[in-house]
Amino acid sequence: MLEFLNDRLVFTALASLLGLFVGSFLNVVIHRLPRMMERDWHAQAAELRGEPPPAQERFNLATPRSRCPHCGHLITALENIPVVSYVLLRGRCRHCGAQIGRRYPVVELLTAALSGYAAWHFGFGVAAVGALLFLWSMVALAFIDLDTQLLPDSLTLPLLWLGLAFNLATTYADLTSAVVGAMTGYLALWSVYWLFKFATGKEGMGYGDFKLLAAIGAWLGWQILPLTILFSSLVGALVGIFLIVLTRHGRNVPIPFGPYLAAAGILALFWGESLTTLYLGTL
C-alpha cells in the first residue's frame, strides 16, 4: 500500500479527490461555524443577565442536515457530490429551481487543487499530511473572514499548536524558529494594531489576524514572516484601492485582512524559501 502511495502521480490524484470532499465539508464549516459562535454568544449573554438560554434547535457541523435556504428541501447524498452534483443540477435546487451559490464548487475545486499540488510538491509523508491540514484551515479561515470579518479561535489556535507539533520533528522549520515565529507573528501585528489605534483612535485590524500570523509563523518559522507580511499588505492595499476607486467601496467600511494573510501563508508554504532568497537578492 505504501509503495502504491509513493507513486507521486497516484498520491496527487488521491489527494485531489480527497480535497474535493474536504472542500464540501469546508463549505459547511464556512457557513455554520460563525452561526454556532453567534448562538454561543447569545447563550452566554443570557447567562450573564440571569436569564435561561434562548430556545433553539440543535445546530452544529453535523445537525441539522443541509437544506435549500429557499424552500427547505433536504439535500440528498446524490445531490451533495462535490462539483458533479452542481454541474448535473445546473447550479439550481432540484426542488424549487433556486440558484445555488457558485461559492460551493469554487471552494471544492480550490481545495482539491491545493491538496493535489501539496501532494505533488511534498510527496507521500508527514510533510504532505501537515500541508493538507494547513491548507484546509487557510481556505476555511479566508472565506469565513470574507463573509463575517471573523477568524475563529476554534480554528486559529489549534492551527498554531499543530504547527509547533509538526515542527517538533523539524518538518517545515526547526522548533526554535517555529516558537519564535509564533511569538513574532503575534507581536508584529499586535504592535501595528496599537500604533494605529494610538495614532487614529480606531482599530485597524482584529485580534484574529494576530493569531493567524502567529499560526503561520509556528508552521513555517520566523524567517518567512517578513515576506508574508509584505505580500499580504501589498495585495490587501491593491484590492482596497480597487474596491474604493472602481466599486465605490466606502473608505470607512472595513476590508478583511485574513484572506490576504492566508494567501501569503499558502505561497510561503510552497515557495517561501525561494521567494525570500529572490527578495533578499533584489534588495
What does this structure look like?
- The protein starts with a helix and ends with a helix.
- Helices cover 69% and strands 0% of the residues.
- By secondary structure, the chain is an all-alpha fold.
- It is globular, with a radius of gyration of 21 Å.
Task: Record keyword descriptors for this entry.
single chain; 0% strand; 283 residues; 69% helix; mainly alpha
The assembly state of the depicted protein chains is: single chain
Number of strands: 0
In whole angstroms, the N-to-C terminal distance is 48 Å
Shape: globular
**Rg, nearest Å:** 21 Å
Question: Beta-sheet strand percentage?
Answer: under 5%
Mean pLDDT, to the nearest integer, reads 89
For the report, how would you describe the main beta sheet? none
Structural class comes to: mainly alpha
SSE sequence, one letter per element: HHHHHHHHHH
How much helix is in the residues? 55-70%
Number of helices: 10
Low-confidence stretches: none
What is the fold's blueprint, element by element?
Layout: H1 2-6, H2 8-48, H3 84-88, H4 103-122, H5 126-148, H6 153-166, H7 175-200, H8 207-220, H9 225-246, H10 258-282
Helix pairs in contact: 2-4, 2-5, 4-5, 5-6, 5-10, 6-8, 7-8, 8-10, 9-10
In short:
69% of the residues lie in helices and 0% in strands. The chain is mainly α and 283 residues long. The termini are far apart.
